[in-house]
Amino acid sequence: MAFDVARVRALYPALGEGFVHFDGAGGTQTAAPVIEAVAGAMRAATGNRSTAFAPGRRALELVAGARAAVADLLGADPSGVVLGPSATALTYTLARTLGAAWRPGDEVVVSRLDHDANVRPWVQAAEAAGATVRWAEFDPDTAELPAGQYADLVTDRTRLVAVTAGSNATGTAPDVAAIAKTAHAAGALVCVDGVHSVPHGPTDLASLGADFLVTSAYKWSGPHLAAMVADPARWESLRPAKLIPSADAVPDRFEYGTPSFPLLAGVTAAVDHLASLDPAAGGDRRERVRAGLAAAQAHEEAVFDRLLAGLAARSFVTVYGAPARRCPTVSFRVAGQAPARTAAALGEAGICLSSGDYYAYEYFRAMGLRDSGGAVRASVYHYNTVDEVDRLLAELDRLAGTEGTMVR
Ligand SMILES: Cc1ncc(COP(=O)(O)O)c(C=O)c1O
């Protein structure tokens, strides 16, 4: 069934302001049911978690609801869903916890394609333990992260391999399953950054081969909260630093302080929203969320193809990378223009794109682009349209002062 983008756009109140949002990679607009769920939870009588009184039980239900929703989104067990304020915070918690058991001579493998949130926590935990860091390199022309190199990078001393399922700079979707297979054959754990990939297609923890997978709800129409999932038995085997009186059960053991209960209601509503994107889909929420994201993916790919073709047709645009498997995200520069200037000029025209390194620090450093301002990033989400792509391309033409050819 065709993706009804007009119906979907009507679900995002913020789109009424008229901006063109090509910065889903930095955070999407919030879906109306999410806003209503958060407001509803704030309006209702609440308390801290307690079985003694109804508002306290409501708080417990909001936590359980968010765990169940994230589990359906990722194909995980609700008891293995750790909730937290951000992917960065959750990855630091995991890195400190795992790193406490590392010894000099142990090794961790990180990649130069990853967002720094799945690099620096591991590098710093390795440094603290005296462990060695090994780097997976990307191909500078294609921005692919060849899975074959992991056969050399992973040894019997490797404790952890950290890799992205989708680059927030080039869109590259590495062959995580192949990388995980190599890691597991050597007895290493695999932490996958799904922050950029999860909004753009169905995700399955088991088929990725991830021991740990992290996602952030604000990249898929939800609030600024994140989750890290793993097999509950894996969490059971780990002891994070924690307060003495706080819950010692899994997954609560890994969560710090009192969560934002209303925002957890928003996480659940965001997953329900994704599950509604294909109105023809049936089955349980896991099946519907997969169908919804598959429908969104097909739409995003059509919009993104037009964008890529349009950028390629303009000689004044340099596009970085051409990965075969990718999320609908691309980094580029306009000739003779600092990326920040391009982004600011587009912003003046109401077209929202990020510029800089967007924390893909190692990628831009290795490309030699970081010190001169990184790049401009266009990222397509399911509410974007081909008309918006044409607006962006026309504005780029105007900026470049050329008569560039619109791709029709
Ligand atoms: C690929 C990727 N990983 C990790 C992060 C960090 O996520 P958070 O802001 O939830 O810490 C981001 C944020 O932009 C990202 O794009």
TrEMBL record:
**InterPro entries, per database record:** Aminotrans_V_dom, Cys_dSase-rel, PyrdxlP-dep_Trfase, PyrdxlP-dep_Trfase_major, PyrdxlP-dep_Trfase_small
Q: Which Pfam families match?
A: Aminotran_5 (PF00266)
For the Aminotransferase class V domain, which residue ranges apply? Answer: 21-392
Q: Which named protein is this?
A: Cysteine desulfurase-like protein
User: Which organism does this sequence originate in?
Assistant: Micromonospora maritima
